[in-house]
Structures are given as C-alpha cells and as structure tokens.
Amino acid sequence: MRLAFVLSEIGSGLRRNLSMVVSVVLVTFISLTFVGGAALLQLQISQMKGFWYDRVQVAVFLCGEDYGSQTCAEGAVTDGQRADIEAMMGSAAVEPYIESYEYESREQALGHFRDQFRNSPIVDTVTADQLPESFRVRLVDPEKYEVVNELFSSMQGVDVVIDQRELLEKIFSVMNIASLVAVGIAGVMIVCAVLLIATTIRLSAFSRRRETGIMRLVGASKLVIQLPFVLEGVIAALIGAALASGALWGVAHFLVAGRLAREYPDTAFISTSEVLLVAPALLALGALLAGVSSVLTLKRYLKV
C-alpha cells in the first residue's frame, strides 16, 4: 500500500513539474557528459602514455651542410664520423641503455616525411637534401635518456639528440589542460544542476503542501512524506546520467572506434569498454547529487 502511494505521488509530482523535470534532465545530462568526457580523456592519456612510452625513441640527428652546432663545424657528417657513431651504438658502454637502433638515410627520411604529410601542400616542396640523416634509438629504460644524450651529443658529426618523449609530453599536457577545462565546465554545470534540482523539489513541495499537511495529520511518517520528493529528483538525475552515458558511448563507438582507430591504426585509443566503466560512476554521481540536494531542500522547506 505504501509503495503504491509513493509511486503515485512520484508520478503526480513529475507530471505537475514536467518542464522543471526536463530542465533537470538536460542540465544533468550536459554536466555529467563533461564529467564523463574528462574521465575518458584521462583514461585516453594514460593508455597513450603506456602505448607510446613503450615505443618511444631517441633520435640522434647527424650533421648536414651549414649546421650551426659546434659538433658540425667541419660540415656534413663524414663516413668516418658516421662509422664512429655507429660503433658507439654497439659498444659495451651503451649496451645497458640501448635496446636497438636503426640508421635512417636522407632518402628514407624523405619517404617517411611524404608518408606522414601526404595530405599537406608542402609535401612536394621538400627534398632529401633538406632532411638530416639520423639514428633511431630505442632505449631499454626511457628514463635513462640523459645518459645517452651525454654520450652522443658531444661526438663529432652529431648535430642534436632529441628525446621524442618530450614531444609526447607537450601533447599530453595539452590534453590534460583540455581535461581540466572539461572538469571546470562540468563543475559549473553540476552547481546549476544542484540548484535546479533544489528549485524543482521546492516547487513540488509547495504545490503539494495541502497533501503533505493531511498526511501529517493522519500520522504518516517523515520518510513516507519526503521519499516521493527525493525520488523525483533522483529519477530526473538518473535519466540525465543515462543520456550522458549513452552520448559518451556513441562518441566512443562511432567517432573513436569507428573513425579515429581506423585512420590512425598505430595509436591506442579507448573503446566502449572504458565507457562502461565510467557509466556506473556517472549514474551514482547523478543519484547522489539529486538525493543530497533534495534532502537538504526538504529539511528547509518541508517541515514534517
């Protein structure tokens, strides 16, 4: 009997305040979409770090004509200097640090450049003479880059030693900033959602003050009186959270897995399984925000 009463009160409240309920759903949907997006972006960053850091390389660029570094004062790298550098690569001194290395000629560098920038208008303007020779080095421990840098940067014929991980860190820092921006927007939207839920519950309690007064007179418990109001806010928030989870799943399925993963097969992207991990947290967060907001509002505006 009590369950039927509570359900009827919930249905009545949702119908009376339909426009406000829709507003709560939309605001919750937007705010939790940003929250989930920020969480998925952090998962993407962690996955990319684990993927790329295992494949990160150190590039030892060799001297060309008219290079400005002190080790290139004699001009382009000579065959002897190149041989010395390669001998150092295979020496016992660097064996604990270097897992493997590969020489890349100017022609190979041009081929890689054209493949990477095949859609760029500058691809046909670059020639092999404009690109440096290099050794591509994979380290046993990427954290030991400084040791390798000290060994090779002072050798004649070496222009510069670059840790590709530094380039990745710049990309990840931009992604982290984007994640923080999403969290900031989500925070603002969550505050709006909480205020809107509180307003909705307040209006619902005010519109049914006569019913609640009669219920107090007949001895209804505090829980029975307040529960319909709390569940109204929770239901609206759960619908918004479900919509946010569905939107994130659609982005992960159709955009990330359906397009980006095919266009960039060498990059590790998140999948819909990560969305399924985030979705329960969004539902729980939506229900928690609505529940707490509703209870605090009822304590102030609904005296039982």
From TrEMBL:
Subcellular localization, per the record? Cell membrane
Q: Where is the FtsX extracellular domain?
A: 56-161
Q: How does it sit in the membrane?
A: Multi-pass membrane protein
Q: Where is the ABC3 transporter permease C-terminal domain?
A: 185-302
- Fetch the Pfam families from UniProt: FtsX, FtsX_ECD
Q: Which UniProt keywords apply?
A: Cell cycle, Cell division, Cell membrane, Membrane, Transmembrane, Transmembrane helix
Q: Does the keyword rRNA-binding apply?
A: no
Against Gene3D superfamilies, the record matches this protein to: 3.30.70.3040
TM helices/strands, residue ranges: 21-45, 177-203, 223-256, 276-298
Say which domain of life the source belongs to.
Answer: Bacteria
Q: How does it assemble?
A: Forms a membrane-associated complex with FtsE.
According to its UniProt entry, the function of this protein is described as: Part of the ABC transporter FtsEX involved in cellular division.
PANTHER family linked to this entry:
CELL DIVISION PROTEIN FTSX
NCBIfam families from the UniProt entry = FtsX_actino
Q: What family does this chain come from, according to its entry? A: Belongs to the ABC-4 integral membrane protein family. FtsX subfamily.
Name the UniProt record assigns to this protein: Cell division protein FtsX
The organism named in the record is Arthrobacter halodurans
